[in-house]
Amino acid sequence: GDGWSLEAVVGLFPRLGERFGQYANTLSGGEQQMLAIARVLAGAPRLLLIDEPTEGLAPIIVDELFALIAALAREGTPIVLVEQNVHRAIQLTTRHYLIERGQVTFEGDSRVPSERDALLARISV
Asked: Phi first, then psi: what are they for 18, rounded to 5°?
């Protein structure tokens, strides 16, 4: 693809549209995460790798980021999401992998309730 237009990115990230013209270092942590994703989308990625996007963010911003990631997934963007908030992340995914000390120790289909439950039991959260 050709990447996302500025209008499309601002449609996904209305909060960034409100901050247009500000320097990136004046944005909040959540806004900086959104900007990082927006910059990648502009380059028409074939795969999006999102590593711990919600770390240290306020709950309302976490909600916005998860909604955004869900929207990207619905649009067909393949996403690899590394996230410690398993309960939230598993709702967005089609497959899940548990990595312990650098090794995949468990995997499953996130759309199958018994496989989701098995992951949650495995990590006991």
From this structure: -70, -25
Cα separation, 15 vs 49, whole angstroms? 22
Answer for the pair 80, 47: CB distance below 8 angstroms, yes or no.
Answer: yes
Q: Which pTM does this prediction carry?
A: 0.75
89, 82 contact by CB (below 8 A): no
Distance CA 121, CA 13 (A): 35
Residues 53/69, Cβ–Cβ less than 8 Å: yes
Coil, strand, or helix at residue 61? helix
Average pLDDT for runs of 10 along the chain of length 125 = 70 73 78 83 87 87 87 88 91 92 94 94 81
